Amino acid sequence: xxxxxxxxxxxxxxxxxxxxxxxxxxxxxxxxxxxxxxxxxxxxxxxxxxxxxxxxxxxxxxxxxxxxxxxxxxxxxxxxxxxxxxxxxxxxxxxxxxxxxxxxxxxxxxxxxxxxxxxxxxxxxxxxxxxxxxxxxxxxxxxxxxxxxxxxxxxxxxxxxxxxxxxxxxxxxxxxxxxxxxxxxxxxxxxxxxxxxxxxxxxxxxxxxxxxxxxxxxxxxxxxxxxxxxxxxxxxxxxxxxxxxxxxxxxxxxxxxxxxxxxxxxxxxxxxxxxxxxxxxxxxxxxxxxxxxxxxxxxxxxxxxxxxxxxxxxxxxxxxxxxxxxxxxxxxxxxxxxxxxxxxxxxxxxxxxxxxxxxxxxxxxxxxxxxxxxxxxxxxxxxxxxxxxxxxxxxxxxxxxxxxxxxxxxxxxxxxxxxxxxxxxxxxxxxxxxxxxxxxxxxxxxx
Length: 447
Ligand code: IFM
Prior knowledge:
The protein is α/β, with parallel strands linked by helices. It contains 15 helices and 15 strands. It has helices spanning about 20-25, 35-40, 60-70, 85, 95-110, 125-130, 140-155, 170-175, 190-210, 235-255, 260-265, 280, 330-340, 370-390, 435-445; strands spanning about 15, 75-80, 115-120, 160-165, 215-225, 225-230, 290-295, 295-300, 310, 345-350, 360-365, 365-370, 395-400, 420, 430. The strands form four sheets. It has an eight-stranded parallel beta barrel, surrounded by seven helices. Strands 6-8-9 form a three-stranded mixed beta sheet, with helices on one face. α3 (about 60-70) runs parallel beside α5 (about 95-110), α7 packs parallel to α9 (about 190-210) and α13 (about 330-340) crosses α14 (about 370-390). It is globular. The chain binds 5-hydroxymethyl-3,4-dihydroxypiperidine. 5-hydroxymethyl-3,4-dihydroxypiperidine binds next to loops. 5-hydroxymethyl-3,4-dihydroxypiperidine binds near residues 167, 351, 408 and 417.
């Protein structure tokens, strides 16, 4: 059973999240090209040769989509702003249509009594900056700070909270080391530089937001607790390396002013000269930390050069992504983050949810999606959040991924994370059973 609001401390906030490229329609509204457009246009990169050109057409349907957020009784709407929509050339002249869109979106969010939680960068790097080396080029971090200042100037009087970067691990490591995200590189030197410059972008963006008078500024990091796949020493060492790169690189930089030694073992030789001088900006105080949590990993050693790890198949129940369902690891993760890195800093679960096959049934009053598996997933994770709070973690809110089925990056449109089903032919939205279950839970009492 899903816990009720009354099971959480007074003032605890609930929200749902989306991101620009995944829902807006990147070809609409005068947006410039971004590196996800060209990654998707390259054969073999995205399932079904899909792209974000139309996505959910949120650009024109945002009012109805916000009605769904408010209709469920959420407190927060977490969304991101497309850098390429606002600055089609990455820098220079803004696209007035793009700025106007985010202006209207924030106003429409507020008009429904929702708190707008804005993430500046959720991966759509303008192609003009990608052409100059993208995140491997230090200058990109400075251009990001300019973008942050522009957005704060325009929206700073109304946005409730700001996140600089979403999941820099994905943009840095998956995009430059594993090649499964834009820009699709497999190069350790580019990886080290991209990871550091993403951290620097956070630091410079944070300073730019503060200088523009914005408040409630944080960063959103993703975490995957890593367990050795067998009892051997080599598996233990491989899991520790995975943990250092995935879970502790950005957290260490931001919260402790230090990248972990186990990550520096591999990445250190390729970091840009003088990187240490950037650590002060990277570790400047933030107001909250966002924790994205989906799963855990079972790690085995692998032959070959650093990092020498391999993921083993998940045991037990899995989501449609093949991700192990592990709510029981969430309380320990949150306790570890606050206990060892962030102390009293407010934490938010900024993403949690599952992809499910979601069969559409013909109900008496129209299509129905009985996603009982998603309801069970959410119930388990909300119970885990309660356990963390009871254990003293300063967890202040819980945001579900995602409002809508959307463009799931390299998986195209085949993996459905939404509380609301989207028919990608007609673009019709249909709230799933999980949406209705949450609506009942959220409306039982108000914060
Ligand atoms: O869809 C993504 C999102 O863009 C970032 N966090 C994880 C989600 C599910 O894979």
